[in-house]
Amino acid sequence: MSIEKKLLAIRKIARIHGKYVIGKLFDDYLTGLISKKRVPSCSFCGNESNLTKEHILPRWVFENDPKHFFTSDVNELEQSYVGATIPLCSNCNSNLFNSLEREIQIILGRTDLKNNFYSPDDLLLIIRWFEIIDFKFQVWDLRTDFKRHKKSQYIPFLAEFSIAFMRLYSVRIITTKARKALKRIATKNKINRERSLIIGTTKEKTFHYFHTSGEFIYLEIPAYKKVFFYFYEREFKTELQARRAALKTIRFAYGID
User: Fold this and answer.
1) What is the pLDDT of residues 224-245, one digit of tens each?
2) Residue 140 has what pLDDT?
3) pLDDT tops 80 at residue 148
4) What DSSP character marks residue 145?
5) How many CB atoms within 10 Å of residue 221?
6) Which of 2, 21, 99, 256 could form a disulfide linkage to 251, CB 3.0–4.6 angstroms apart?
7) What are phi and psi of 101, to 5 degrees?
8) Among 96, 174, 169, 114, which Cα is nearest to 141's?
9) What is the 3-class SS of 192-249, one letter each residue?
10) What pTM value is reported for the model?
11) DSSP-derived secondary structure for 38-96
12) Phi/psi class of residue 233: alpha, beta or left (left: φ > 0; alpha: ψ in -120 to 50)?
């Protein structure tokens, strides 16, 4: 099956099964009874059989290094990228998402930004990949229980709330963000989205990543000497405006005046 057909399958699943999957996630981890029995299922299509673990970021992005980790902005606990996974059925994982990731690797490997640039189709594929990463991270936030940092006071009942809730304290905002993330995946038309994607080169030896769900993603991939910044919602009239906005966000994230 061609990558175009697999992208079509991804969009169809998001449209047809998205409402059920999102509703089940919310009921299991956000709005339902904390004591209810949770039935494991695919976080994308809802299938309850042949479940596998899907990494939020592919192993090749973080160099399959168990020492690479990110720090939660909620409780300052460290989480390895190797351990940051969500359940997907074998079809959604191996057949669809992994196929897209392999195509991304091919695109990154064959494009030397000193001599050429990505085609419009390549840019759209990269954008769709980032949209899926955002959705996966929101699912992970919903499914991950809040845990106490060793230096913080312990309030037992908070341990049963999700990271997503402890970050925003608003069911409405959490649900709105997740639905928007899924809608982006289901949408074929990406007119004007290319200007929200900034691409450059990097000499860094270790990958770097940070994001704010539904707002932006920043990703450096040293293996391909590429760096990306993508705004999920914001649109820009010119590439220069987008680059300035991205630089401002990066400087703020790294505490640079």
Assistant:
1) 999 999 999 999 999 999 999 9
2) 94
3) no
4) B
5) 22
6) 256
7) -65, -40
8) 174
9) CCHHHEEEEECCCCCCEEEEECCCEEEEEEHHHCEEEEEECCCCCCCHHHHHHHHHHH
10) 0.93
11) PPP--TTT---SSEEEEESS-TTTTTT-TT-EEE-TTT--EEETTT-EEEEEHIIIIII
12) alpha
Q: Is 143 left (phi over 0), alpha (psi -120 to 50) or beta?
A: alpha
- What is the residue whose two structure tokens read 């990269």? 126
Q: Nearest 5°: phi and psi at 204?
A: -65, 145
Summarised one tens digit per residue, pLDDT across range 113-127 is 888 899 999 999 999
Q: Which residues contact residue 93 at a Cβ distance below 8 angstroms, ignoring those fewer than 6 apart?
A: 52, 54
* Maximum Cα interatomic distance, the chain, rounded to a whole number of Å: 58
Instruction: Please tell me the distance from the alpha carbon of residue 215 to that of residue 95, in angstroms, as a whole number.
Output: 28
State how far the Cα of 132 lies from the Cα of 43, in Å rounded to an integer: 12
**Which amino acid would we find at residue 141?**
D
- Which residues touch 46 (CB under 8 Å, ≥6 apart)? 17, 20, 21, 24
CB-CB contact of 186 with 11 (8 Å): yes
* Phi and psi, residue 203, nearest 5°: -110, 5
Asked whether 174 and 165 are in contact (CB, 8 A), the reply is: yes
Q: How many CB atoms are closer than 10 A to CB 67?
A: 10
CA–CA distance, 182 with 184 (Å, rounded to integer): 5
Residue 219: beta bridge partners? Answer: 209, 228
